[in-house]
Amino acid sequence: MTVGVEVAGLGTAACLAISSLIAADVSRTTGVFEFTKTRMIFASFFMLPVLFIADVPLRVSVADALTLAASSLIGIVVGDLSLIAAISKIGPKKTSIIFSSNVVIGAVLEAAIYHKKTTIEAGVGILLVLTGALIVIAFRGGAGAPLNGHLNAERQNTGVALAVLAAGCQAIGTLISTPVVTAGTSPIMATTIRFCAASLLFVIMGRTRSDDIRTDASSATVYAKIVVSALVGMCGGLTLLMLAITSGKIAISMTYASSTPLVLLLLLWLTRGERPNASSLLGAITAVAGTALLIFEGAHQR
Question: In 10 A of CB 273, how many CB atoms?
Answer without folding.
Answer: 7
